[in-house]
């Protein structure tokens, strides 16, 4: 992390295999995805040529790490994760993986899974969650869904999910809104301080 002037640089992680998507909350909780190249390469070496070719282009599995009391805690291990978000209270982490969005509770509690089919039947296992964010009161999530599957060579327009913003209440029915294809999404407080 660096200050705006770039004069003070602070190292936040020292994971030996590298990290991606580091995020820090207002209360100082640090989250990141830890790459596990050694484990992936050991597994890869055991595959036949045919199995290696079949895996080409697949997503890497990572560990989702939280650092809250100075010690790294693996909240999720060995999983494909497209994006994640730490709840405003720091008591939950949501992440997108193949075919679903999952909410886990690092201090205990039953994980909650929301299949893409439950969110919208038109979402498939070839969609990946991106721009994932919590509502400020922690009662809902918002995200985009990027289509990562193949496309017909001359197919017109975008694929469902690429122009939609999905709202997923933890209790209630999911819905979506149409947005620009390049839009980023997040929750904002209204001028009154209320959460829309």
Chain-wise SSE layout:
Layout: E1 19-24, E2 30-35, H1 37-45, H2 49-55, E3 61-67, E4 72-80, E5 83-86, E6 93-97, E7 100-104, E8 112-115, H3 116-119, E9 127-134, E10 140-147, E11 164-169, E12 175-178
Antiparallel strand pairs: 1-2, 2-3, 3-4, 5-6, 6-7, 7-8, 9-10, 10-11, 11-12
Can you describe what's shown?
The strands form three sheets. This protein has a four-stranded antiparallel β-sheet, with no helix packed on it. Strands 5-6-7-8 form a four-stranded antiparallel β-sheet. The protein starts with 18 loop residues before the first strand and ends in an 18-residue tail after the last strand. The mean pLDDT is 78. The chain has three helices and twelve strands. The protein is mainly beta. It is globular, with a radius of gyration of 18 Å. A hairpin with a 2-residue loop joins β6 (93-97) and β7 (100-104).
List keywords for this structure.
12 strands, 37% strand, 196 residues, mainly beta, 3 helices
Strand order of the largest sheet: 1-2-3-4
Largest sheet: 4 strands, antiparallel
Question: H/E series, N to C?
Answer: EEHHEEEEEEHEEEE
Main structural class: mainly beta
| Fraction in helix | 10-25%
| Portion in strands | 35-45%
Mean pLDDT over all positions: 78
Roughly how many Å apart are the termini?
31 Å
- The overall strand count is 12
How large, in whole angstroms, is the Cα Rg? Answer: 18 Å
Which segments are poorly predicted (pLDDT under 50) over 5 or more consecutive residues? Answer: none
Number of helices: 3
Shape: globular
